[in-house]
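Moderator note: this is an archived Q&A kept for reference. The question asked for a predicted structure of one protein chain; the sequence and the answer are reproduced below.
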Amino acid sequence: MVPFSFAGENWRLTRAGALFRLRGETLLVADLHLEKASFYASHGQMLPPYDSRETLARLAGAIRETGARRVFCLGDNFHDDDGLSRMEPHAAGMLAALTRATDWIWITGNHDANGLPHGLGAMADEAEEAGIVLRHRALPGETRPELSGHFHPRLRVTVRHRHIRRPCAVIGAGHDGPHRMILPAFGALTGGMDAGDPAIVEAMQPARAIDAALPAGGRLATFPLWRETA
């Protein structure tokens, strides 16, 4: 995990893309897209049906690593409304155990706007945690501190003449420093959008600066995406 400051508080970002707030012992993840493989299989595109197992195993690892007592999932939790009914017993058992062991809150996204599993944590369209708005999709014009997902940002970097695309966070800063963030997709079977795509830049306005950020060598490496011009 790498430490950094955001919205006046201390946070940690894991290599898997989970965000941990020290005050409140709260873990945040975005875009699990559980049962995406089985959704594609039901439409004739056969994929190995183990993406939910992998995603939940990574999430369990993040909870152990951080010691989190609360978990917020920031939308697009299942890939579609019927995802839970298709989940094989092993993955379903993992999910039940995780939601029993923590204070679990599902934020709804565009893939699960019709509701989420009952009896497996609480559900909300959005939430506010210690003055920070938690929602699935960044709201253009938002001036309050905000955490969101939806866009699956990825950054292309060149390392030793090799081009590498990695999931990243996107951080928007105003006059008082970083206060809005789009988390990387946490799911095992998720694609991504270029972190500097105009749709992401537009969603993060107003801002003075927008950066991509990812853990690297024990620190949070940042890469400029957009700067306010005079």
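Archived answer notes: The CA atoms of residues 156 and 222 lie 12 Å apart.
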